[in-house]
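Problem statement: downstream parser choked on a complex file, so we are re-checking the raw output for the guanosine-5'-triphosphate run. The parser issue turned out to be on our end (a line-ending mismatch), but while we're here, posting the original submission so the record is complete.
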Amino acid sequence: MKAVILVGGEGTRLRPLTYSTPKPMVPILNRPFLEHMLSYMKSHRIDDVILALCYLPDHIRDYFGDGGDFGVKLSYVVESSPLGTAGAVKNVAQHLDETFFVFNGDVFTDMNLSEMLETHRRKSAKATIALTPVDDPSMYGVVETDADGRVKRFVEKPRREEATTNMINAGTYILEPSLLEYIPSNENYMFERGLFPLLLERGEPFYSFSSQAYWIDIGTPEKYMKVNNDLLTGKIATDFPGSVHKKNVWAEEGHKIHPKANIDGPVVIGRDCFIEAHARVVGPSVIGPHCYIGAGSLVEKSIVWHNVAIGKDTKIRQCIIADAVNIGEGCDIAAGCIIGNNASIEDNALLSPETKIMPGTEISASHSSGC
Ligand code: GTP
């Protein structure tokens, strides 16, 4: 089965993380988000995947190659300028000669894709859109359907009291190739504002697939943290990388955890990590591969990417620390800070809550800075 994954967006809401790491490569339990996605798709027999790229395409291509290591066939098509969600699918039309899935490349879900495909076929639909419930529909575009699941109307941000449904677009579609004719070539064109209203206008058989499965769009720092936490705390099932170091602590090979270090799970520790005596890691936390945590330091409820060095007696709480960041001794990094790739924080620096540090920035003890 074929699928297109839309991975061309700049991920502006996840900045500064996405200035140098495209959103699909942002790690979840120490594996790029897209790797989780491919494994989920494969479990539903989707094994021929076209990646519609635009922003930082080489990061993705270099890691995944032809897909062989991940059990899927991967093709890449790069847009020279963003074509929008539907425009990006039109741009890969040469690969699409049978029923295919389209996925937003930033949704973590365990929705049943096989059932969705079955629904699409049973209804003889030309398009099927997956729907997921939200608590407050006034923040989203909702999708109204009839009793048979046929899509009737898209309503953008309805007032709470006027909303007739709380089901929103889950960012997964099944389309028949004949619909590609409705999408203009080489033009920025969106599903929500372009193709979908047009399908309704033309009376095409456009159906929905409602699912109560786990669903989260990882596109903001809060939601990115949440999906990691939900996996670590077992809200959604996953295979943890590495082996069990102790209860609720998983560590990959090559780690050196001092017997006097204190790891309170749930915590995942990447390969070749070095954790010194009296350092504390409090879960839910993820420590990426090749990290160093100095003696007496605290890392609490945080996500630390690859190759991060943390000096002794430093405190980090509820933060996201990107690749190759250097944090000195005696620092205090308050809740909600996000530190971009290759930044460097001098000894004794204090970062106030929610500070965002641009990639490559050097922060001295006398000042804290944001982007
Ligand atoms: P924000 O800037 O934070 O909104 O992120 P985004 O643009 O990356 O994501 P958004 O939620 O707006 O888009 C949903 C999905 O469509 C994401 O997986 C994007 O990568 C993808 N996407 C959005 N626009 C384009 C585009 O022009 N081309 C391609 N190929 N993909 C796109």
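For whoever reads this later: The radius of gyration is 22 Å.
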